Amino acid sequence: MQYKAIIFDLDGTLIDSMQLWRQVDVEFLTKRGIDVPADLFDSIPGGNGFTQTALYFKERFGLDDSVESIMDEWTFMVEQHYSSDVILKEGVYELLQAIRKSDILMGLATSNSLHLARTVLQANGILSWFPALSTGDMQLRGKPYPDIFLNCARMLEVEPEACLAIEDTLTGVQAAKAAGMRTFAIFDEDSIPFWEQIKKVADLAFEDYTMLSGQVLQELGLI
After folding, report:
1. Which of 73, 155, 160, 208 is the most exposed place for a label (fewest CB within 10 A)?
2. Residue 20 has what pLDDT?
3. Is residue 141 exposed (0-12), middle (13-18) or buried (19+ Cβ within 10 Å)?
4. pTM of the full structure
């Protein structure tokens, strides 16, 4: 396969941020006097889009807040961290830099919002490297549906089959595979309960970027 693009997930794939989102969820409910259910993080529809997750919170907890105000509050709570102390995973910058020197296009397919995605990429000095940002607030069906990945491929003007996808979650891997993309999984601590399933669904799975990067560059024909 002659690849023309590589599409990355964001949270848990490029950046260490999954625990931050758990913290935000807890603070969001606690300030409203709502006990945090023991099954909260298992019951949130995994990989769902930003808008859909806000709707889930509104319906499950009977919130008077509008979906838009919930998203605005989450954005406010997370933005400071995304603009200052959420960093790229070890080995990510070097891999992106190597790809950037080639003709391979880079895109982002994330359940996060466009604003927060742009914020954290800008803070890490790599926003301009991604000509296509497909995000969870674009009225697309969330992962595991393929929409976010297919939309990113359309934005890049590349056929899905000519894209390599990198993901860390089960729903993300399922979404990329459903889009018809060869898919590599990268380990993230937040996905430990699903890692064995992830390895079965992904074409290849890697414990860290040291292992992933070499395979990616080889598949892209860059080494």
Report:
1. 208
2. 87
3. middle
4. 0.87
